[in-house]
## 1
Amino acid sequence: MGIELLPLTQGPARPDDTLVHELADVLRDCVDGGASVGFGRPLALDRALDWWRTSLCAPATRTWVARGGAGRIEGCVQLSLAGQDNARHRAEVAKLLVHRRSRGSGHAAALMGALEQHARHVGRTRLLLDTQTGSVAERVYERWGWVRVGVVPDYAAAPDGVLAPTTFMTKDLR
């Protein structure tokens, strides 16, 4: 297993097509499996590809991938750095995704470890994320030391379109 920080795609350059397709595969698998990560089901391939092409070019967002034994992307996570003058100490975690075929392999923990190390390195001491209330992900974050800040009812629709509560969590990296 290898964790890799992807280079930011800037200017007229486009992200590598193979990379985008592998990330889209992970995203679509997670949505198909019921993960509430901003998309409804079914998630069309073109929609997933477009989302990743745009996301990989966002200047304040860094993306890590976990590669399996065959070198294929099995998971990813993103860190979005807050840009306001009064927020240079914080960042938001998004899209921690692991393909269902690779769950339980340690990819998620390794991805979050790399993200947290990088956040500290760039002076971010407060992280924030949101996850569907009652999900497996919520319990995993709690095991990793994340603290529940609050729950907002009917905050986001699950992939099946049903509104569900969202738990907001934080972690102090100091």
## 2
Amino acid sequence: MTAFIGFFGAILGALVGAIAAYLTARSNMRLTLEHSYDQTLQGKRLERYQALFHASKCLPRYWRPMEEEPKREDLQQYMRNFHDWYFGEDAGGMFLTAAAKDVYTRLLNLLAEAAFKGGDGPDGDSRLTETESEALRQLAGELRRQLAVDVGAAHPPRLHWTRPGPQAPPPSFDS
């Protein structure tokens, strides 16, 4: 009887051990697959986001003194550039996170509103108002910040002494 109990205990222990090993291996395999997928997605997102970041240079933080502000017809070209990025061969829009897509959509809506304010008629070459210009530049900046957050570039370094200081305000060119 003692041998039978010992044999039964060994069988039960082996069965419990096998079940635990199966569940652990399955969990590890799932985590490995999720991690691999996340790495691949992050790599593809980084490539697409770099192109969008570059395309957003048409709406800088501030207009330089020797640089002309864009006209409404220029905004129509900017819209085409953003549209081509979103639906282009690389399908950049597919990789936007929900937060980035929200900012991107708001920026495109504001571009369209400002670009077609006067229709396609004589206002196509008119200048933006200060309010329109400021709103467009702020949204473009918000989009760039969100892209940096999405790819992890906005996270502060872990070492406190390597963290950058606060961002300086834009220069004032009023004379």
## 3
Amino acid sequence: MSCAKVVSQFEVFAAGELGRRRTWSDAEKIRIVEESYRGHRQGSVVARRHGISRALLTQWRRAYDLGQLDGAPTAFTALEIAPDPMPLPQGAPRGADTDARVEITLANGRRLAVRVDIEASALTRLVQVLERA
């Protein structure tokens, strides 16, 4: 009768390494976020490379886009407001034309046509996506 030895592989962690949280400076976060924006579908790859979760990278991206990371670039775009092309008829309440649209030309040359009653936060997200792409 033969006895087979069972060998198992295990890792030994030094005391204090389990559950340790790493703190990232804003400069490191910015570098990682900018790396994740290069190329197509790089978020998960970059997160894995730096040992962070995809959700954390998404939070950093959101903060970066809102300019909340110290040192993140902020962008200003020139805006020209033109007079109304047609005056509203007498007695018509302001905002009565719910299908009215405004056209915005972005710094990269793309044009965006949106309804005049679009929420500012939704418009901000659209512009950010179109400026980045």
